[in-house]
Amino acid sequence: MRFVDEVAQISAAQRRRAITDEIMDAIRVLSGPELAGVQRAAAVLTVGGGMSTAGSSGERLGPARDVVDRSEGRSFVGRTACRVCDSEMGDFGNGIVLGDVDVRYGRCAGCGLVAALDPDWLDRAYTEEINALDVGRLRRCLMMSDIVAFVLRGMGGQDVRCLDWAGGYGVLTRLLRDRGYDFHHHEPLAPNVFAKGVTASPDDGRYGLITAIEVLEHLVDPANELAAVAASTDLLLATTEPIPSPTPKPDEWWYYSPDTGQHVTFYTHQSLQQLGRKLGYRVLCGSFVHLFYRGKLPATARLAVTSPRLATLLGASIAPLDRRYGRTEADTAELGRRLRGALP
Ligand SMILES: [Zn+2]
């Protein structure tokens, strides 16, 4: 039985106890006298019960960012098979994106995935004007940098080689490098503004962690587009908003994002499980953070899924400690050398 299903079946009191255990496991991973303050803060939260730790269904990341792999060259025109489980897609109604584009949505009879069946407007959806609608980008990156830093604390910290896949302007990569983490940036479609000198791709060796923040809903053909990622890491941390139940119609849910026209694929937890299976992963689904993994899952990673708000708080608490070993100055020096032509 999946962890989320187990959690749903136990009582609130049991759930609190289970999550407290999760927290304490995660805290045990955080070692060293410098983190005593963090441990005390977490203990207060745990004992006092002043903070809800049972998921964060009210958490909202804001509208999706501008970054995606548009899967150029692939077309789903006329296709009626589900993009993750290959079951039949039934008609789910029509919507309008970008103010004047009619969209036909389908819903999978097998896993519940909802998808725009003929996304042929995407070139228009990725203009700068549309991208500017995502005012929540920086807030989201700050929060995710705390969550990711917390996850990495449980698995080797600043020595873990990481990649932010489809990372937009490079904000998350820069924030995490400023905290000392060995993050690299990948993005074929948007200009690299903040992560110059540290670009990489899934094909450049193995990664201890790859992140895909608000990307899955942009993918036209998720299994194929994630294949290279799945081949290069055993831990993929992805965020996307799961479809509520009952499934909202195209004009009933903000996450369809009609103003941007960039969201084309929407997942149930079952869809995410199916997608993971295709990629050779087990999947731990949460309210918006999901982990695709092989092998043992670090306690900090599990907490990021079950209690992302607490993971954010704990991650923020260790930021001053992280920054003692930040890579900002080293990266600046390296870019300076490149600029002067000292390096190829
Ligand atoms: Zn399906």
Search tags:
344 residues; Rossmann fold; six-stranded mixed sheet; four-stranded antiparallel sheet; globular; binds zinc ion
User: Can you list the strand order of the major beta sheet?
Assistant: 5-4-6-7-10-9
Order of secondary-structure elements: HHHEEEHHHEHEEHHEEHEEHHHH
Q: What is the end-to-end distance?
A: 53 Å
Q: Which molecules are bound besides the chains? A: zinc ion
Count the strands? 10
Q: Total number of helical segments?
A: 14
| Range of strand content | 5-15%
Shape: globular
What ranges have pLDDT less than 50 throughout 5 or more consecutive residues? 1-8, 27-78
In CATH, the topology of one domain is named Rossmann fold
Q: Class of one domain in CATH?
A: Alpha Beta
- Provide the structure class: alpha/beta
